[in-house]
Write a structure and sequence with these properties.
Elements: H1 34-44, H2 47-53, H3 56-63, E1 71-75, E2 79-85, E3 94-98, E4 102-109, E5 128-135, E6 146-150, E7 153-159
Antiparallel strand pairs: 1-2, 2-7, 3-4, 4-5, 6-7
Length: about 170
């Protein structure tokens, strides 16, 4: 018996009328070897069953949102825009750096100390430091990049270098 596996690359995942999941853009966190395995496993077993079977330790290693903020990367005519979800983090706890080929976002998620009395039934609030590097599709002018933070969304606007702009080539 042969079984086919479909491999998805950045295809959106949504819930349709039959309540079946369709893949949404995958996060590509730095140094996370679990993503490929999890993506292949999701094709074989519904993700809800998989998540129920995982231990809290494994879940925190793979799914901790403080470790991997979701990003959108948008190409405009003369610039690249990166938006990252960083809810609850103020600008004093964020650090961004850019070079011609990538953007790195670092932050520190600080919440109240964990409860010292009683036993936790759930402990899902993200705490600690995170870092995310995103490769850029075009070379950018790092000196002219600018960043803003509003409503938990960090936005970086980075002008493309002149030689990096997309050009149409006429076919003869």
């Amino acid at each position: 018996m042969t079984q086919e596996l479909r491999v998805h690359h950045n295809e959106p995942r949504q819930t349709n009328a039959a309540n079946t999941q369709i893949q949404r853009g995958r996060r590509t966190p730095l140094f996370t070897p679990f993503d490929e395995i999890e993506r292949l496993f999701d094709d074989l077993v519904p993700s809800t069953l998989f998540r129920l079977s995982r231990s809290p330790i494994t879940r925190n290693l793979v799914d901790n949102p403080a470790r991997t903020p979701s990003v959108d990367l948008i190409e405009r005519d003369n610039e690249i825009v990166l938006r990252a979800e960083v809810p609850g983090i103020d600008k004093e706890h964020l650090d961004t750096s850019v070079d011609e080929k990538s953007v790195t976002i670092r932050g520190d998620v600080t919440h109240e100390e964990q409860e010292s009395e009683g036993d936790y039934y759930r402990c899902e609030i993200a705490r600690g430091e995170f870092a995310r590097s995103v490769p850029l599709p075009f070379a950018i002018d790092a000196d002219k990049a600018r960043a803003s933070l509003k409503d938990g969304v960090l936005e970086l606007v980075m002008p493309k270098l002149e030689g990096s702009k997309r050009r149409k080539i006429k076919i003869k």
